[in-house]
Amino acid sequence: MSKVINRSLRLSTLLVMFLVAVPVTAEPVHPYADPIALGDQAVDVSAMLATAFEATPWTLTKESDALYLGKLSSKGLDVQVRISAVDNVLTMTLDSVTETGCGGNCKDLGEKKVLRWLVSLRRSITFELTLRVRDSLQ
Amino acid sequence: MGLARESECRVFRGLRMKNVLIVVLLSWAAGALADPGPLVIDKSKRGRASDGDIEAVHQEIATGTTDLRKIRLAIVNGMLETKGRAWTYEGEGDGYILARFDYRGHTIISRIEYNQELVQLKFHAGSEAYECENLQEDGVCYKNHRGYFNYTRNLRTSIASNLQLVSAGASS
To answer: How far apart are CA A12 and CA A8, in angstroms?
Structure first.
């Protein structure tokens, strides 16, 4: 009996030591694809996206209440993103990147540039959302 | 008799392990869902930024009002009116708002916890350069890139200013 208790205690101690040794880690972050939670705010998604897009060189097309497309033609690239609005959460995904020719102005093109455009678009949307959250509290 | 004792021991062992697990999980959950509270820096922890840097970001702020709506408004105003680039709304839950800062390809997400007495910024997430290198269970980040402390300090200052306005309005 005491052997079993000792073994049990040893196992418990090991388990506690293991759990304590596991470092505290934070959530992973994606530059543009993290879902945008609208929370409990009664947000008119179409109007919010329209205003957010106005502040950017992107154009917005509404496919349905749950799906929007964003398009950008710049520096020889055509970029398209898909924004889905499901259960009060917006999710942005990169649909396509097509080269259209840059007329000799091809420097600094590539993934980094596209990534910056996507981050900037997401930020424009979340900034507009922040303004709406503030307005709802006033 | 032997079999009965063996199964009794197995049950005993199972219960003991279960209890230990429950205690450990509860204490972890308590840490993860911690309310804002007075900042206590563990001086024995090595590899941390200066106390001044940690306090500038994680020191609790007195709300000056018990109106949670006004406190939330002060937080959101603080995010928008911070020095430099605004922090954006990234969602919220019971007693906290997530604020995101995207700048030059890097991201910081702060968890701004609040109740009727206090507001406190906690580290929630960071991309590459801004990942916390010494994150405590209560969400206080002891070591990070210089930029983390600078940008988040500005956010805290801005929220504190907005709470002061609320407090002044409440007392007048």
So the answer is: 6
How many residue pairs from chains A and B have C-beta atoms closer than 8 A?
94
Helices within chain A (DSSP H only): 2-21, 45-54, 111-137
Q: Find the radius of gyration of the CA atoms of chain B.
A: 21
- Give me the pLDDT at residue B141, please: 95
* ipTM over the 0.90 cut-off: no
Question: Which residues in chain B touch residue A1, judged by CB atoms under 8 angstroms apart?
Answer: 5, 9
CATH code at position B115: 3.30.310
pTM attached to this predicted model = 0.80
Instruction: State whether B39 and B23 are in the same domain.
Output: no
In chain A, the N- to C-terminal Cα span, in Å, equals: 66
> Based on the structure, what is the number of domains in chain B?
2
Minimal CA–CA distance to B107: which of A137, A27, A76? A27
